[in-house]
Design a protein that fits this description.
- The chain is of the alpha/beta class.
- The protein has a single domain (3-91, 172-315), classed as Rossmann fold, CATH 3.40.50.
- It is 32% helix and 25% strand.
- The protein has 11 helices and 12 strands.
- It has helices at residues 52-59, 82-89, 109-120, 126-139, 156-168, 186-203, 214-220, 238-243, 248-255, 262-265, 297-301; strands spanning 3-18, 22-37, 41-45, 67-72, 75-76, 92-95, 174-178, 206-211, 223-228, 231-237, 307-310, 313-315.
- The strands form 2 sheets. The protein has an 8-stranded mixed sheet, sandwiched between helices. It has a 4-stranded antiparallel sheet with strand order 2-1-4-5.
- β4 and β5 form a beta hairpin.
- The longest helix is centred in the middle third of the chain and has 18 residues, at 186-203.
- The chain is globular, with a radius of gyration of 21 Å.
- The structure holds adenosine-5'-diphosphate and magnesium ion.
């Protein structure tokens, strides 16, 4: 298998100036590396505030990276400028969490879904564009006649279908889905997930699927990356991660999910206490140490490196492997 996207040491700090003297640096994403294989769905999971959206927006160059590399089809996205960047961007799309905020309320569906065509394929005629938009709407389960309507005329699930149509209209290879179902009712969630799986098969898409929901990620991902406070703490194939979670944070996330799986029921529950610390002021050593039941002096002093403990199974914890 070949990696479509390789992230190496991807880092994004936000500098926030408060007055003349005070400056806060939020280490939202801090040295994240992982691969996304072509045709796979790679999951990215972690509590709110762990840096998942920032990572997505940095990879797509919607935020300027602080450092690192994002190699897409052999090209480092972080070094591209101007027209080169636009050309590569056509191969990548994103669907955001909130279907109410992500669609321009004063535009018709035709203009929302057709906008990427105007940017990336400006020489198309109105008729060519119109027929592509109508066909794409039907592919995501809407009606061709919906081109005339406005976002407020649709339900949350239908709006997410519009956002998916907009992302796919220029036939990208790679889609980042940032909590695409988190704002939807459970029954609607399942329909959108199934649509995404169908579209993946039909168009041969590669997904980076972001969520805080372990059940969703288990259902959809081939491989899972777990983030905590800007860092990758564990990375493994989905089955391996659910059968043998090694990082105390991953185990805590899995403990919080109700399960019928007997292999997981027998496992000792590990509960997450308190809230994650402020990413502008993370604890020294392991960032999870302030909430970890296993933490000792070493953990509070030295940051654990991400090491491979089994083929394809990586973990950053002083208490695992070695
Ligand atoms: N534009 C921004 N400016 C300053 N801080 C930000 C910005 N965007 C996100 N952050 C901070 O970065 C951290 C990670 O946020 P985010 O990437 O949204 O996490 P997640 O998507 O995992 O919930 C949070 O502490 C958040 O407050
Ligand atoms: Mg987010």
């Amino acid at each position: 298998m070949t990696a479509l996207l390789s992230l190496r040491d991807v880092t994004k700090y936000f500098e926030i100036k408060r007055g003349v003297f005070e400056r806060r640096v939020v280490k939202a994403v801090d040295g994240v590396s992982f691969d996304v294989e072509e045709g796979q769905t790679v999951g990215l999971v972690g509590e709110s505030g762990s840096g998942k959206s920032t990572l997505a927006l940095t990879v797509l160059r919607l935020y300027e990276p602080t450092r690192g590399q994002a190699i897409f089809e052999g090209v480092n996205l972080f070094e591209l400028k101007g027209r080169e960047l636009t050309r590569v961007r056509r191969k990548m799309g994103i669907v955001f969490q909130d279907p109410y905020l992500s669609l321009n309320p004063v535009k018709r569906v035709r203009d929302i879904v057709g906008l990427p065509l105007k940017v990336h394929m400006p020489s198309l005629s109105f008729e060519e564009r119109e027929s592509m938009i109508r066909e794409m709407l039907e592919q995501v389960g809407l009606r061709a006649a919906d081109v005339e309507r406005f976002p407020h005329e649709f339900s949350g699930g239908q709006r997410q279908r519009i956002a998916i149509a907009r992302a796919l209209i220029v036939k990208p290879k790679f889609l980042i889905l940032d909590e695409p179902t988190s704002a939807l009712d459970l029954s609607v969630q399942a329909k959108i997930l199934n649509l995404l799986l169908d579209l993946q098969r039909e168009f041969g898409l590669t997904y980076l699927f972001i969520t805080h929901d372990m059940n969703v990620i288990k259902h959809i991902s081939d491989r899972i990356n777990v983030m905590y406070l800007g860092k990758l703490v564990e990375s493994a194939d989905t089955e391996e991660l659910f059968e043998r979670p090694l990082h105390p944070y991953t185990r805590a996330l899995l403990s919080s999910v109700p399960t019928l799986d007997p292999r997981q029921r027998g496992r000792k529950k590990m509960l997450l206490r308190g809230d994650p610390p402020d990413p502008a002021n993370p604890p020294p050593g392991c960032r999870f140490s302030s909430r970890c039941p296993l933490a000792d002096d070493l953990c509070r002093r030295e940051e654990p490196p991400l090491v491979q403990v089994e083929p394809g199974h990586w973990v950053a914890c002083h208490k695992v492997g070695g």
